[in-house]
Amino acid sequence: MSNLAVITKLIDFLKSSPTPFHAVDSMKKRLLSAGFCELKEGDAWQFEVGGKYFITRNNSSIIAYIHGKQIAEQGIHMVGAHTDSPCLKVKPNPVVNSQSYLQLGVEVYGGVLLAPWFDRDLSLAGRVNYLDSQGSRRSALVDFKKPIAIVPSLAIHLDREVNKSRSINPQTDIPPVLAQLASAEAGFDFKALLAGQLAAEGVADCASVLDYELSFYDTQPAALVGLQEQFFVGARLDNLLSCFVGLEAMLASGSDYAQILICNDHEEVGSLSACGAQGPMLRQFLERLIPDVELRNRVVDRSIMISADNAHGIHPNYADKHEQNHGPLLNKGPVIKVNANQRYATNSETSAYFRHLCQQVNAPVQAFVVRTDMACGSTIGPITAAEIGVKTLDVGMPTWGMHSIRETAGTTDMLDLIKVLQRHYSTR
């Protein structure tokens, strides 16, 4: 497959995945088309050598698994990522009529960089739970797709100090505007809007909407940017970019070795949930895969996890924010992330393993360490290592604008990391 074809697939994946629910749905479709079988957690499981399987939890986390030939001797080659991204989530009772403008109250999910959300063409997507005509509870995904909202900026004439000192109040400054109502007293039935959207998307039996989990997102599609198209710019690169790369690598790797791709929800808010990395999802999967405790511990000892999440590429306008010897450049290879305080799970053994993989596929590799006088973020890597006991390292593609509504990565870094992870999946 050509490089352009892979990039086109990534653009399509991001477009079809405005929320973790949609991302998992997109991944499910690709896995099913590749011959994977969906397992239900409430059913009994049986695995066959060479078999391909996946499970989901909360429809927002997913584990894909290939049952290799010699799992006891070779362990499981794992890749982890996360499906969620910082965003604005709609509150339970969201409708606000302010000066006859319809707005929706929102919560900030994760560490959102708020300024870029102003003056963007926003749409709304997520999961809606409803009663059908028979009185049964159902759920369905919705995506308005078109721009239906905006967070307008305050004109500079009304705040002359805006470029020096304006702060953003997440309660009062960012509720999006969706419409102009007939009067300052007019009401609006938001659940009726959702019922109409369900009908527009083919759900014909919605009797009443019970609840929802909805997020605003930017409708501008991802794009190649730059005179030589060296930069890939889009929403939710943190961390759908890693989900895409992990899936591409698994689908191209073959089935000789046992492989896991796990993409957890809720990483941006700490991972502590039933479907987050600090929850039991992966541990329970391994327990059912290998019921014998002795054997399972031996398999985990022979396994290795690559936690793939984005890394901070050195910013040409803010180079002093980086440790001087550890400023990864875009398009210069995947990044090994290191932190002495275990905010990343990398150690010298797992780092050496990854460097060797890069050598084998002729891919460049870089390293990132945060400045000693700055706080370091974290990933699912240390959490998974602590929960499962598996050898783990943290890697990622260098990006700019992490947690912005649009983030920037290097086009060749993605292609290099696919090669490296494919090698990881298909070697002992």
Automatic annotation (TrEMBL):
InterPro entries in the cross-refs: Peptidase_M18, Peptidase_M18_dom2
One GO MF term: aminopeptidase activity
EC annotation from Swiss-Prot or TrEMBL: 3.4.11.-
Gene3D superfamilies referenced in this protein's UniProt entry, alphabetically: Aminopeptidase i, Domain 2, Zn peptidases
Source organism superkingdom: Bacteria
SUPFAM superfamilies assigned to the protein according to its UniProt record, in alphabetical order: Aminopeptidase/glucanase lid domain, Zn-dependent exopeptidases
Co-factor(s): Zn(2+)
Keywords of this entry: Aminopeptidase, Hydrolase, Metal-binding, Metalloprotease, Protease, Zinc
Pfam family, one: Peptidase_M18
Top enzyme category: hydrolase
Transmembrane segments: none
Similarity-based family: Belongs to the peptidase M18 family.
Full protein name: M18 family aminopeptidase
Naturally occurring in which organism (per UniProt): Simiduia curdlanivorans
